[in-house]
């Protein structure tokens, strides 16, 4: 049986702890209905809301947008979101992402392909993907004529005000705020998914930061490209290639690449200790938040570093920064031998730990 613990910023109830106070010591999350946490395969965070994808359903906590009745204050517990199409059928969800005040998700079509993209919430910079006249949606709406016929959405990523989708043929489409070039050369707001051209390699993964997008090709080859703002040397400091990567993540101003050997490569903003500290133990999983990172070590410990003013890196010291060092949030040696930490998550100053307990 898996249990989820959360800590950090919680003013909108986004940690789903049954209250709205920040916490620096992990607390067990609350749910309105029973969730099989063993089936959780994605955790995504917007500005003040958190999404769990479990068993083809999305559970949400916090606030998506105050101005939306159904999608306003969801509350301080995880609640299953009932997405239905025009015929009233519940939609099985394949993947999800979150912008500042919106939810994006994909659904399988009748052929079992992840080829239907829906959005709901608020998007003042085109991130809903439905054209310039659609800035608020209280009901999930299908993004028309996307992806192109016969293709699937293989990866979906978003940040504050833009989103990208990686397709089954290696193409990438972006929409939303593109003024810094984060969704290609247009450098303007893009209101519907538009193909990003001139990449030179087949893309398999994408991550989004506040004003940039990082696209990765085949892990064995290691192609990558950073689009958008070069603030914090995000483009100029990026390696030419990075073969052997296992997972990737992006904060608002930093990029983090977990290698197969457990090393963590990172570059970008580091004024609050966001980048991987020297001497970091071997890591098996990472979760990158807005300005902090969690790492699950190969020894089974959970570490945190970066900007932690809200307790998202553990008890607050040194003005909240965990810089050039890391906090041990949870150590396997201090728990029951039968308990294992199996995953981590991170959002906007929010942190999450997945713990596996023996079945009773």
Automatic annotation (TrEMBL):
Protein name: RCC1 repeat-containing protein C10F6.04
Organism of derivation: Golovinomyces cichoracearum
RCC repeat start and end residues: 2-56, 115-169, 170-219, 262-299
InterPro entries: RCC1/BLIP-II (IPR009091), Reg_chr_condens (IPR000408), Ub_ligase/GEF_domain (IPR051210)
Keyword Cytoplasm among UniProt keywords: no
Record's keyword annotation contains Repeat: yes
Top-rank taxon, per record: Eukaryota
Keywords assigned by UniProt, alphabetized: Repeat
């Amino acid at each position: 049986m898996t249990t989820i613990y959360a800590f950090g910023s919680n003013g909108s109830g986004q940690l789903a702890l049954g209250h709205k106070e920040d916490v620096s010591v992990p607390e067990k999350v609350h749910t309105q209905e029973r969730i099989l946490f063993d089936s959780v395969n994605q955790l995504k965070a917007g500005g003040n809301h958190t999404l769990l994808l479990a068993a083809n359903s999305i559970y949400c906590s916090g606030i998506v947008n105050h101005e939306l009745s159904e999608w306003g204050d969801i509350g301080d517990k995880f609640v299953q979101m009932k997405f239905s199409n025009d015929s009233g059928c519940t939609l099985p969800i394949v993947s999800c992402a979150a912008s500042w005040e919106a939810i994006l998700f994909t659904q399988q079509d009748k052929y079992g392909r992840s080829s239907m993209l829906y959005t709901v919430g608020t998007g003042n910079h085109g991130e809903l993907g439905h054209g310039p006249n659609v800035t608020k949606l209280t009901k999930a709406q299908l993004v028309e004529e996307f992806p192109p016929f016969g293709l699937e959405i293989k990866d979906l990523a978003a940040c504050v005000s833009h989103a990208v989708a990686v397709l089954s043929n290696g193409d990438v489409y972006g929409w939303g705020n593109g003024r810094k070039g984060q969704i290609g050369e247009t450098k303007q707001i893009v209101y519907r998914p538009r193909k990003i051209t001139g990449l030179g390699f087949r893309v398999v993964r994408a991550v989004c930061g506040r004003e940039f997008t990082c696209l990765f090709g085949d892990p064995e080859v290691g192609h990558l490209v950073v689009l958008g703002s070069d603030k914090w040397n995000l483009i100029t400091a990026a390696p030419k290639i990075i073969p052997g990567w296992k997972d990737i993540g992006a904060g608002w101003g930093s990029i983090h690449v977990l290698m197969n050997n457990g090393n963590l490569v990172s570059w970008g903003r580091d004024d609050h200790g966001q980048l991987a500290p020297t001497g970091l133990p071997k890591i098996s999983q990472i979760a990158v938040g807005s300005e902090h990172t969690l790492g699950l070590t190969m020894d089974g410990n959970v570490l945190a570093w970066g900007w932690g003013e809200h307790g998202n890196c553990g008890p607050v010291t040194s003005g909240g920064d965990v810089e050039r060092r890391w906090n041990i949030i949870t150590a396997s040696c201090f728990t029951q031998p039968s308990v294992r930490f199996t995953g981590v998550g991170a959002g906007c100053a929010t942190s999450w730990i997945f713990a596996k307990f023996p079945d009773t």
